[in-house]
Amino acid sequence: MIRLLTILAALAAVVPAAALAQERLVLAPYPGPPAWKEVTHKVAGLKFLREFIPADQRIEAYRDILTAQSFPEQRGADPARYLNAVFQGAAGACDGVRVNGPKLAREDGHAVAYGQVYCARQKGQAFGVTMLFKVFAGDDSLYVVQREFRTPPQDAPGVMSASPAQSAQLLALVRAQAAADRYLAGQVYLCGTRSADRRCR
Fold it and tell me: How far is CA 58 from CA 31, 55, 112, in A?
């Protein structure tokens, strides 16, 4: 599902190049345990792709991933519009999907959109997917941060159920998703030339 973002990025509005600002997307270290490791780091000018997974997982069979991407060709695009395109794409990739959002905010002068996708079962796979998004409209790029969980398949998207033997696993997943929400809200931010956020100094 994370590759879906690259495909859907083309659906958002493309804005002519403007003067480039000095800005950076900041990701605090993802909370463990275990510690998380970077498994992808690709940069081409202002465009980048970074992926992180827990140190005890492999990228070939991950269950958890944090992805950060920049789309300078979509500088000035509406982050809510971007998320709505993602939501539409997820509907075609899942057997049962529920979405929350986009929820709009302004953070340090930047337009931001939050959203969640609950995929009951990814088509052709034996798992479901929960994806949490934070999208920034920066001066240089559109920035997309996504926390993805692979989950047991469910009959209804976003409605987790488990046997008594699986209840501890389900509780751990619910707590991990709540922690991911807090992380995106408080530990992922955009610093620019006009930033008032003290963390950007």
Answer: 18, 8, 31
